[in-house]
Specification:
CATH class of the largest domain: Alpha Beta
Distance between the termini: 21 Å
Number of helices: 12
CATH topology of the largest domain: Metallo-beta-lactamase, Chain A
Helix content: 25-40%
Strand content: 25-35%
Shape: globular
Number of strands: 15
Radius of gyration: 24 Å
Strand order of the largest sheet: 7-8-9-12-13-14-15
């Protein structure tokens, strides 16, 4: 099970109510006991994008930088990465020593090196930096991470369309549970004993009467899969057509409504001729139509222009979140949320 906490949902600049982009994804194991589930060490998490102020937003949550497993950066624009050096510095000052994986464009590596060299920043933990460009050049290779002996995480990357190279991350969590077939054991006349535990852990055992029991004969392997796709800035949702197959949830930007996007493009074209500036973002209509056409059951919109006030009132003449919501609902009728 993946639990999402939006740490920032504003496009470009923060507002009084919204910080710039960052999303925390906790990897929960529902097969653990409630006591173990509540322990921080059993709740590893990922961070997708790290806009300025992300570490301040984290202070409003129960997330710990010691359990942060992976940081993924979709692209190099500042509202998605300027908070990264400060967050890493705070992790160092908090005493973190465990290695940390960063999946990002090569330029982010140069950015961190520049900050380290100019500010005497030192990390007491190893950083395993995985350049997106190298992953994509390897025929779309996937990155696999073992979170524990039950949880496996797989991350895949899709190229998007934006003013700079931008990407989406597909995050697939697979949880394995070994269930002991106690009915079969009882039917075979094998009473409960510590040997049952050994069988469940995958060990073959020998009984006192000499009988040998193979774990595979008495253990059922259940598997639970959850997949989400989190997109960076992108003006062409259809680029995600392959990525969203068999996906439980899509998180995608909806920077403005279609009418506002059209006005921006028209204004910029009029001011600058054919070389007009295109922000290359998606409208709520674009994403909603794509989600409907793709058969997605769950959609979260985020990365909203600062022009939209945080309230939801269709009757107000002030641009507000109802404008985004109503446009999306006209084209998409499944489960829809606007990230807060």
């Amino acid at each position: 099970m993946l639990q999402l906490t939006f740490l920032g949902t504003s496009a470009g600049v923060p507002t009084k109510q919204r910080n710039v982009t960052a999303l925390a994804i906790e990897c929960l194991n529902p097969y653990l006991s409630s006591q173990n589930q509540s322990r921080k060490k059993s709740r590893p998490w990922l961070l997708i994008d790290c806009g300025e102020g992300t570490q301040q937003q984290l202070l409003q949550t129960k997330l710990s930088l010691h359990q942060l497993t992976v940081i993924c950066i979709t692209h190099v624009h500042g509202d998605h990465c300027y908070g990264l050096p400060g967050l890493l510095a705070s992790a160092a000052m908090s005493g973190r020593t465990a290695p940390l994986t960063i999946i990002a464009p090569k330029a982010i590596h140069d950015f961190l090196d520049a900050v380290k060299s100019t500010t005497e920043l030192h990390f007491p933990f190893a950083i395993d930096f995985i350049a997106i460009e190298e992953v994509l050049s390897d025929n779309g290779a996937k990155i696999s991470l073992a979170l524990d002996n039950q949880q496996q995480l797989e991350i895949d990357i899709t190229k998007l369309s934006h003013r700079v190279a931008s990407h989406a991350f597909g995050v697939t969590q697979t949880i394995h549970q070994r269930v002991l077939n106690t009915d079969k054991l009882k039917a075979a006349g094998i009473p409960a004993s510590p040997l049952w535990g050994q069988l469940q852990q995958g060990h073959d055992v020998t009984l006192e009467d000499g009988r040998q029991l193979a774990s595979a004969d008495y253990v059922l392997n259940n598997q639970r899969r959850t997949r989400i796709v989190v997109a960076g800035d992108n003006d062409s949702p259809e680029l995600l057509s392959a990525a969203v197959k068999n996906t439980d949830l899509l998180v995608h930007e909806a920077t403005y409504t279609n009418a506002v996007k059209a006005r921006i493009l028209a204004k910029n074209s009029g001011n600058m001729g054919n070389a007009g500036f295109d922000p290359m973002h998606s409208s709520a209509q674009q994403v909603a139509q794509f989600a409907k056409d793709s058969g997605l059951q769950h959609l979260i919109l985020t990365h909203f222009s600062a022009r939209y006030q945080n309230f939801d009132n269709p009757n107000s003449t002030t641009a507000n979140m109802s404008h985004i919501r109503l446009e999306a609902q006209r084209y998409y009728q499944n489960q829809l949320w606007l990230a807060e």
